Model the fold of this input.
Amino acid sequence: MHAWIRRFGRRRRLIAAVLTGVALLCVLTALRPGAGSTVQVLVAARDLAPGVLGAGDAHAVRLPRAVVPDGALAADPVGKVLAAPMRRGEPFTDVRLLGDSLLARLPAGQVATPVRIADPDAARLVRPGSTIGVLASWDESPAALPVADAVTVLSTPSGNSEHGALLVLGTTPEQAAQLAAAQAGGRLSIILKHHSG
Done:
């Protein structure tokens, strides 16, 4: 009996080392990425500015499940409104897009129209619910001409750029077309209107 205890005592360090190794191997096996540990997510195909997303703005990649952010999108966001700039390769999430709740507040016959206002300080004067008029000016003309009158601000997404500040307006389709044409070659500014409602 005493001889067995002595032999066990001499091998105690070896047994402890073996058990430690087995435990470490179990931990590494549990942490090792497996075949099903990646998920498909949609990321920005290029650097994106705020506005309506088009075909080709997003593409699918596979990422480790552990690094996928909450709210990552599974459906193509084409036609949705991006609220803030995104870098190429950044995953799309629900908080990056203006939600359906915003569109649900639109009166019948209106659309949500993103516009970029040249003066970010002026854009900071308005908030969702404000009523504004939109003017456009061009380099060849010193006068600013009205483009849309008495439109409602739906959202004021953050993320100003060197091109101005983004506002999302509730407009008629005709006003949306006029704003898009004015934006293509001119600079937009706003005037504050009294909300009669």
Observations:
- The CA atoms of residues 75 and 92 lie 10 Å apart.
